Structures are given as structure tokens and as C-alpha cells.
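Journal club side-thread
Mid-discussion, someone asked how the predicted structure for our own chain would compare to the paper's figures. Pasting it here so we can look after the session.
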Amino acid sequence: MEVNCSESTAPIDINDTPTNTCDLKCKYSFKYKESTSTITNNQYYLSLTYEQSFPEPVIFNANTYQVNEIRIYSPSLHTYSGIKSDAEIIIIHSGSIGNLLVCIPLIKTQSVNSSTKILNNIIINTNKYAKNTGDKTLLTQTINLNTLIPNKKYYSYNATLPFPPCDGIYSYVVFSKDDGAFSTINKNQLITLQNLISKHNISIKKGIKFYVNKNGPGLISNDIEKRDDIYIDCKPLSPDGDIIDETINTKLPKSNDFFQNIDIKQKLTNMRSNGVIKIVVIILLMYIILKLFSFIINKL
């Protein structure tokens, strides 16, 4: 079985007793692009590549992230109120500041939808061309992770990697099947997946605080605009990332009349002290004196 990291602090059990809420500090927004992918059978999980795109497809806590790898485990690594799901997708992201794991439980179904189509394609291709450990195959169709992200509330915590090398500090976004936040996998393809990979031995860790974001994820509608909106938000936050004072207004006044008046006064002051004006005044005085002198001479 895959090595169980005794020193790691993840995965954890996700239940209905989070420590607190975190609406801003764990805000997760995404706009993944269509991608080709190569599947590798890594014995205990399927590993998929994903093309990098610009601008980056994910924003978490005001930082941007790229997709590094996608993993599919069965059963899930996380538990939900003590119970594992049929499988779990873990999307591993890297960013300029830290790393992010987005974790989505998979539930078996007999119906067909957008997520089952993607997973069917992955598992059928693996079963044909990458049955053995270390085998690789190129997916016959492109995939888009947007289809797999539930539009539901999620949970967040910080911990090490749950699998080797079992180190580092990673941010986690975890959806819960208890909230109806899951993607689906075809019942027959789940059986095929479980025949392709071995059952892992990664255990649940305790003692890690986790938080809930009840707003759910956001879709980045305009990448540049969205990033600007996040970075200029100067509202004070609590240690958990929530607004603690909404009375502070950091916006500039709409009118610039005050600054315009200052400019006018400054210009008048400069004009008074300007040497050109002094010269003009002297010339005028000399002209007046000459006219007076000429008038006096004529009278005499």
C-alpha cells in the first residue's frame, strides 16, 4: 500500500463543526481552460497533466495559481463525518506564494452527466492503454476542470501534503459530499478504476482547525478586472480573514475642487513674484515720466 505519512497533518475529517467561517482569506475563484492531458498509472492513483494558461486560472486568498497535477484516488483521502466517498479528485496547484490543493469527492451513479463523461473518458483510456503501473497514455479528448467543480460551500485548512514527500504547508479547499458538493462517476467505471489502482493506506489526521466558506467558489468572469478588485480591497480583516470594520472608507473624494483651488492660488502667487511683471511695471513708469517731462518742456 502507498506509504502512510506518520508525520503529515492531512487529510482530515470534514464535518459540520468547523472552527469558524473564512469568507475572504479562503476565497476560491477559478476559470480553467480546455486542456489536453496525459494519464499515468501510478499504482495507487491516476495522475493527469494539465496545460498551464495565462492569466492564471485560479485565485485563492488574492494569490494566483496554475494547475500542476490532477490525482484520482479510490476511496477518497478525506472522510466526511467519518465516512469515505467512492473516490476523490485532488487538483494540485502551485503559485508564487504557496501551493493549493482542491479536493472533490466522487460519488457513483448510473446517470450520465458532464462529470461522468470526463471520468469515463479518463478511465476507458487508462484501461485500454495504461493498465500497468508506470504506463502512460494521451487522452483522446480534451478536458476542462470547470465541469468538475461543485457550486456549493466548501471547507479550508492548512496542512502538509497527505502523500510523499509529506512536507510543506499547503492550503486546502475541500468540498463535502454531505453538502451535496461532489462530482459523479459511473458505477461501472468506478469498478474499472478500482481494478486499475490499488487501495491506498493514507490515514486521517486529527488536531487541524478547518474553516467553512458558505459562499462557495466564484467564477472569474474577467481575469484582469477580478485581480484588480481583489488587490485593492483594503478592508481590515480578522485573523480568519473576515471583515471586522466596514466603516472605514479609503476612497478618494469624487470632487477635486479643493486641489484645483490650491493650484489657482499657487499660480497667482507665482505670477506676483514673476520678474517679467516687474520689468513691465518699470517700463510703464518710465513711459509716464517721459510723457510728463515732455509736457513740461512744451509749456516752457
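Post-session note: The chain has two domains: 13-231, 257-299.
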